[in-house]
């Protein structure tokens, strides 16, 4: 029972281990190419089994049957499989044959090369040849590359290891639940992170893809989609994910990619995600040099698409190598060619040319396109005059692995209402840091998309800009011209510093406290002069009074009740998911509903609640629902799996089983809820061990004090570092000294502490081993009620408290501001002067007492 998360982790760990020093952007071609060939082989075997009417059998038996049938029917069998798939893999060239050769010790790298070449020949006579042609060309998979190994033996060893990585994966079964496609996309993303600047050739970060895809999917009736700089195809697939299943079945995919290896990666990626060959049209070519796709009957209009998405190379230099003129139909709308030194608008105009009248286009661009002048300024002016620019979304810097610059997503439409304003969103401040990269959280993505869909204005975040305002700025669309960042720093008040007190205007700015508990706040303040107040009690007491106020308690109870009802509703649904359930749809329902619930409460940030639910899916539900769907809730709860750990290093590195873990119920949670007495006993012993260590540390410090009893008795027992006693030395010294002496008693005390610590440590080790074994066995016999309690705790244990805390959070934020204001103005300038004068007088008095002898 292997889940998509486990497959992803296993494959990436394998890739990291096998890659060695090879560049990640190159190694991905080998790994993903061979993974895809395993898929083609598995599909061939599955098709042979179905068309031949064979029942369930072991894979080795199926290969044997296929080999016999090929010997008997020859080309007739090939054509039968080819008619179904558009390709076939002959028995002698199957991935499974490579595995057999490896097991028999007969493996040769040439066999892999021959297999890939033969596949090219088998599809050359097929009507679907363009779908698979060149997938395994030498430019993509060069098995003679010395980066795979300096000699044939090394290359053979490394390729064998890579082949074995996919040996036990049934690619056909994995594709049905999109597990295979997810794993492939995950690997592409991981390779992108490892590749640094080279990643820009083939990958758009997931969170940026999500922003673009969700906007496109929500605002267009999408039947066809086009990415002129398609990379690995991740943008196309992300849009697909956000469309209804019925729409997905009939969606047409178009894309063009200049890099041949990446072009091959795109086709593999789409095929693995279940996109039928006849539904994809992917071309290997330069998007800007020659227009594509073209409609021969309407050469000046271009093929139109419902959605256009792209993440082109930023500010591509020398883009116009083909010597294009402004008369090119793609650039006519602009009236001028983009500068040859910066190709950003060239890509935009190409995409816009292919955008259908009712479609939506989303493109990632550097900020320079918003304000640069000359030809780019003219193009921007023409686009605005034509009313094509719909929205500009500023994103944080350092989102991409290939550049640290901040980028913007521009949304374009051709069917905008006359005089409809341009929506500008500044999302550049909403992110978290993960390693060296900035990352948008799920709540940040949701906030952007909701703001776009609702066309709403939020102070400091978004605004609707009329054409006249843009004209006033001479068509400069730099985001700070229209959205002023909110300065959260409260200006200092000179009078308050001089005379003390908190400015009343700062108290008035505590909007949430003022609107909810203004009376409680008012009773906690005293006016000391006109416009200035001071606190009558510490902020901690004010905070306690506010949070225990009946109005706040009532709101907390209301949100608690609604959160419990929400959880109870989905608790029932989640326990009963099956293979027909759409987990993506279920997750979306939960996320939308929590926003709706929280929207009824003033001053709560609904996106904080959204993130809470998104984290539950990320940390638990994505994994667990997949396993539950394969069997059922209680069966999954009583299922355990080997706990595999990596031991050794280098050539001795290996995976070994270290006990068992629950498939969905965590061992730690079973121990916490069902073995609390045992845990408490272990904790008690650990506390005593810590106490002993503290006693020994105290004795060590005392032994360093010259002429003390401890120094005389124990000083020579310290180790070279002087940080601990040598147990052997203590035992040896005890045999020499007389009983009853101070020295003997101190040595005996140290000996006993050592003995007690050793005994307790052994007891803890034995207790932990017994508890671990008990938990592992308990998994198999958990009752339904225990599984309910354990899984409820895992999924929703802290959720209600987290939702209730959303009521307290804005109040506590303002109370922190109140504390800051109090601290800021607590010491007035006159008080500081008085203290300074006092210290000066005391110093003078001290000086006068000094007598020079």
UniProtKB/TrEMBL annotation:
GO MF assignments: site-specific DNA-methyltransferase (adenine-specific) activity
TM regions (residue ranges): none
InterPro entries reported in the protein's UniProt record: D12N6_MeTrfase_N, DNA_Adenine_Mtase, DNA_methylase_A-5, DNA_methylase_N6_adenine_CS, Restrct_endonuc_T1M, SAM-dependent_MTases_sf, T1MK-like_N_sf
Keywords: Coiled coil, Methyltransferase, Restriction system, S-adenosyl-L-methionine, Transferase
Catalyses which reaction(s): a 2'-deoxyadenosine in DNA + S-adenosyl-L-methionine = an N(6)-methyl-2'-deoxyadenosine in DNA + S-adenosyl-L-homocysteine + H(+)
Keyword S-adenosyl-L-methionine: yes
One of the GO BP terms on file: methylation
Coiled-coil ranges from the UniProt annotation: 675-702
Domain of life of the organism encoding this protein: Bacteria
EC number(s) per entry: 2.1.1.72
Pfam families per UniProt: HsdM_N (PF12161), N6_Mtase (PF02384)
N6 adenine-specific DNA methyltransferase N-terminal domain ranges (all copies): 7-164
PROSITE patterns: N6_MTASE
Gene3D superfamilies with a match to the protein in the record: 1.20.1260.30, Vaccinia Virus protein VP39
Domain DNA methylase adenine-specific intervals: 176-487
Family: Belongs to the N(4)/N(6)-methyltransferase family.
Protein name: site-specific DNA-methyltransferase (adenine-specific)
Organism from which the protein derives: Cytobacillus citreus
């Amino acid at each position: 029972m292997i889940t998509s998360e486990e497959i992803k982790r296993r494959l990436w760990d394998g890739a990291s281990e096998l890659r060695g020093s090879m560049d990640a952007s190159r190694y991905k071609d080998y790994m993903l190419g061979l993974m895809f060939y395993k898929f083609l082989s598995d599909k061939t075997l599955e098709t042979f089994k179905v068309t031949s009417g064979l029942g369930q059998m072991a894979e080795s038996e199926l290969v044997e049957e296929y080999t016999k049938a090929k010997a008997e029917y020859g080309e007739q069998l090939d054509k039968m499989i080819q008619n179904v798939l558009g390709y076939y893999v002959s028995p002698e060239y199957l991935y499974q044959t490579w595995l057999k050769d490896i097991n028999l010790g007969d493996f040769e790298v040439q066999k892999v090369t021959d297999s890939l070449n033969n596949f090219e020949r088998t599809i050359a006579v097929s009507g679907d040849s363009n779908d698979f042609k060149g997938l395994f060309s030498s430019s993509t998979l060069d098995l003679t590359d010395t980066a795979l190994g300096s000699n044939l033996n090394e290359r053979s060893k490394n390729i064998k290891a890579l082949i074995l990585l996919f040996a036990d994966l049934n690619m056909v079964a994995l594709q049905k639940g999109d597990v295979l496609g997810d794993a492939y996309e995950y690997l592409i993303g991981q390779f992108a992170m490892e590749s640094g600047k080279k990643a820009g050739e083939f990958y758009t970060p997931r969170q940026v893809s999500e922003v673009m895809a969700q906007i496109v999917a929500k605002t267009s009736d999408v039947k066809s989609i086009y990415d002129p700089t398609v990379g690995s195809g991740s943008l196309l697939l992300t849009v697909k994910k956000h469309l209804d299943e019925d729409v997905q079945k009939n969606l047409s995919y178009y894309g063009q990619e200049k890099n041949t290896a990446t072009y091959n990666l795109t086709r593999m990626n789409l095929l693995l995600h279940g996109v039928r060959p006849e539904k994809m049209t992917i071309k290997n070519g330069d998007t800007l040099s020659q227009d594509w796709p073209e409609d021969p009957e309407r050469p000046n209009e271009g093929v139109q698409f419902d959605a256009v998405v792209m993440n082109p190379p930023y500010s591509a230099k020398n883009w116009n190598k083909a010597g294009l003129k402004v008369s090119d139909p793609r650039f006519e709308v602009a009236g001028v060619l983009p500068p040859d030194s910066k190709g950003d608008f060239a890509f935009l105009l190409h995409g816009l040319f292919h955008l259908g009248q009712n479609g939506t286009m989303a493109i990632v661009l550097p900020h320079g396109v918003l304000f640069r002048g000359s030809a780019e300024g003219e193009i921007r002016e023409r686009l605005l005059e034509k009313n094509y620019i719909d929205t500009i979304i500023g994103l944080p810097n350092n989102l991409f692995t290939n550049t640290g610059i901040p980028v913007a997503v521009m949304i374009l439409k051709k069917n905008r209402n006359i005089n409809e304003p341009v929506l500008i969103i500044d999302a550049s401040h909403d992110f978290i840091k993960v390693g060296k990269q900035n990352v948008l959280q799920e709540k940040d993505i949701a906030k952007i998309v909701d703001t776009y869909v609702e066309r709403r204005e939020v102070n400091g975040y978004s605004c609707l800009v009329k054409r006249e305002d843009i004209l006033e700025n001479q068509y400069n669309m730099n985001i700070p011209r229209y959205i002023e960042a909110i300065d959260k720093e409260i200006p200092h008040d000179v009078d308050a510093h001089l005379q003390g007190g908190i400015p009343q205007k700062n108290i008035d700015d505590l909007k949430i406290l003022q609107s909810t508990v203004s009376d409680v706040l008012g009773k906690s303040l005293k006016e000391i002069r006109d416009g200035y107040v001071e606190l009558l009690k510490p902020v901690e007491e004010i905070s306690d009074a506010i949070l225990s106020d009946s109005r706040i308690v009532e709101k907390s109870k209301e949100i608690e009740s609604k959160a419990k009802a929400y959880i109870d509703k989905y608790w029932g649904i989640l326990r009963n998911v099956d293979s027909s359930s759409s987990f993506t749809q279920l997750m979306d329902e939960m996320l939308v509903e929590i926003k709706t619930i929280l929207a009824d409460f003033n001053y709560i940030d609904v996106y904080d609640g959204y993130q809470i639910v998104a984290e539950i899916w990320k940390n638990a539900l994505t994994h667990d629902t997949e396993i539950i769907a394969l069997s059922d809730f209680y069966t999954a709860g009583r299922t355990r799996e080997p706990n595999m750990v990596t031991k050794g290093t280098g050539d001795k590195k290996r995976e070994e089983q270290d006990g068992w873990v629950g498939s969905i119920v965590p061992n730690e949670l079973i121990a916490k809820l069902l073995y609390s007495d045992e845990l408490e006993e272990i904790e008690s012993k650990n506390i005593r061990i810590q106490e002993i260590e503290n006693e020994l540390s105290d004795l060590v410090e005392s032994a360093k004090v010259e002429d003390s009893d401890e120094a005389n008795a124990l000083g020579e027992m310290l180790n070279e570092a002087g940080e601990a006693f040598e147990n052997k030395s203590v035992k040896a010294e005890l045999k020499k000294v007389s009983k009853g002496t101070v020295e003997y008693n101190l040595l005996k005390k140290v000996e006993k502490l050592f003995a007690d610590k050793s005994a307790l440590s052994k007891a803890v080790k034995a207790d932990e081993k017994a508890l671990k074994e008990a938990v592992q066995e308990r998994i198999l016999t958990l009752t339904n009620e225990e599984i309910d309690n354990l899984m409820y705790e895992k999924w929703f244990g802290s959720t209600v408290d987290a939702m209730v805390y959303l009521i307290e959070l804005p109040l506590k934020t303002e109370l922190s501001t109140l504390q800051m204001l109090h601290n800021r103005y607590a010491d007035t300038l006159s008080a500081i002067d008085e203290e300074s004068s006092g210290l000066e007088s005391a110093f003078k008095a001290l000086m006068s007492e000094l007598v020079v002898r």
